Amino acid sequence: MKKYTIHKGKKTIKLTDAQIMKHQNFDKLFVSYNELTKRKKPPIYKSKKWFLFLILLALAAYVISEFT
């Protein structure tokens, strides 16, 4: 475990309004928030239900093409 030290005699940093406004980028913050919170969907071939559906669809297409 890291050892942390607390510096009580440290002066607080005073930022001006211009410095604060310079670093505010809400578009970038919103994009990073959406990337973090959105649920990533697995590809179709990794989902068992969709993979089975695609196999059955391909099998049905093969059977239909053989008998017509």
Describe the structure.
- By secondary structure, this protein is an all-alpha fold.
- The chain has a domain at 41-68.
- 56% of the residues lie in helices and 0% in strands.
- The chain has helices at residues 17-22, 26-37, 48-67.
- The mean pLDDT is 85.
Keywords:
68 residues, mainly alpha, 0% strand, 56% helix
Provide a quick synopsis of the model.
This protein has three helices and no strands. With 68 residues, it is an all-alpha fold. The protein has a domain at 41-68.
Q: Radius of gyration from the CA trace?
A: 28 Å
Give me the number of helical elements.
3
Outline? elongated
Quaternary state reads: single chain
Quickly give the structural class: mainly alpha
Instruction: Report the helical percentage.
Output: 55-70%
Biggest sheet overview: none
H/E topology pattern: HHH
Give the total of beta strands.
Answer: 0
Topology, element by element:
Layout lengths: L16 H6 L3 H12 L10 H20 L1
